[in-house]
Amino acid sequence: xxxxxxxxxxxxxxxxxxxxxxxxxxxxxxxxxxxxxxxxxxxxxxxxxxxxxxxxxxxxxxxxxxxxxxxxxxxxxxxxxxxxxxxxxxxxxxxxxxxxxxxxxxxxxxxxxxxxxxxxxxxxxxxxxxxxxxxxxxxxxxxxxxxxxxxxxxxxxxxxxxxxxxxxxxxxxxxxxxxxxxxxxxxxxxxxxxxxxxxxxxxxxxxxxxxxxxxxxxxxxxxxxxxxxxxxxxxxxxxxxxxxxxxxxxxxxx
Length: 254
Hints:
Layout: H1 3-10, H2 25-35, H3 50-54, H4 56-59, E1 65-68, E2 76-79, E3 90-99, E4 102-107, E5 117-122, E6 130-133, E7 148-149, E8 159-162, E9 165-166, E10 177-178, E11 181-184, E12 189-192, E13 196-198, E14 216-219, E15 222-230, E16 233-239, E17 243-246, E18 250-253
Antiparallel strand pairs: 1-6, 2-3, 3-4, 4-5, 7-18, 8-15, 8-18, 9-14, 10-11, 11-12, 13-14, 15-16, 16-17
């Protein structure tokens, strides 16, 4: 089933997957996921749709969907809590561009009705990335292979990742995860969960949840914002939203 087939078949219908609070926006998006042959993904922190995006690195959703910044019809989009538009967050399926910074989105529990409708919503209310079902992805016939250089001298602007690295219990606790951060000693300590991927099966499970300290993770592909070295200290790189990591196990994309 593709998005247009889903739209033709289910527009104006309502679906309550979990039997709670009627046909909500989450039910609609997860019904769509099921129709594509995928599992459902739950709102495990706040109970609101925003958790689908906030927990994307640990829920397993990225096994079935690819994060994208430019939406196409059929992508699942999560909206931030935004006054007037989506005060408690929202989740819907991108339908088309509506112009002037707005898009048309197919979803449940919008326009004041439980059934699937198309509503015009601002892109400014969306999280930075949407989820594209992998069954919709176009395969490129001639893509240049990526080489990762572990011996490169890093500089500002380099695109980097890391080797697969073990996680460890945070000192003074009984867990490797605290406040949305995971302890990766080879990177220098705590790193945001959303910035790492788990090596499949490293902890005995084939998902993106860190079940135990046998898990190994790697840093997401990201840009180096600054580098620091010398003065008897180990080389470090400033990455992502502004934190430093040890550079020893980083690799540069070439």
